[in-house]
Design goal:
Shape: globular
Protein name: Cytochrome c
GO cellular component, one term: membrane
GO molecular function: electron transfer activity; heme binding; iron ion binding
Keywords: Electron transport, Heme, Iron, Metal-binding, Signal, Transport
Distance between the termini: 39 Å
């Protein structure tokens, strides 16, 4: 029974992660980086890759609320979660410089 539940959870997470790759509009997700261009880029990446689980307003949904994630985790810890996944979040939803931008942007959310 546990194996079936775990398979269902991981499968659902994978589908949600892949669905997040579908992109979105140019809606404002709150900005908030040190550099406006980088913050805007990070918000756009978040909107395209993460908002389907974490919500466009960062308040959560399938994934946890990230409105104050920077008060709990450092940029490096957030980057590690993005790269390696945690809980139901799949690893590698965002990669490369995009992951770094989003981690920096989220770490400023206090």
């Amino acid at each position: 029974m546990k194996k079936k539940l775990l398979t269902l959870l991981l499968g659902t997470s994978l589908v949600m992660g892949l669905a997040a790759c579908g992109g979105g509009g140019d809606k404002d997700t709150g900005g908030g980086g040190k550099d406006t261009a980088t913050g805007d880029e990070a918000a756009k990446i978040f909107d395209q890759k993460c908002s389907s689980c974490h919500g466009g307003d960062l308040k959560g949904g399938v994934g946890p609320n990230l409105t104050k994630v920077g008060s709990k985790y450092s940029k490096d810890e957030i980057l590690d979660i993005i790269h390696n996944g945690r809980g139901g979040m799949p690893a590698g939803v965002i990669t490369g410089d995009d992951a770094d931008k989003v981690a920096e942007w989220l770490s400023a959310k206090k």
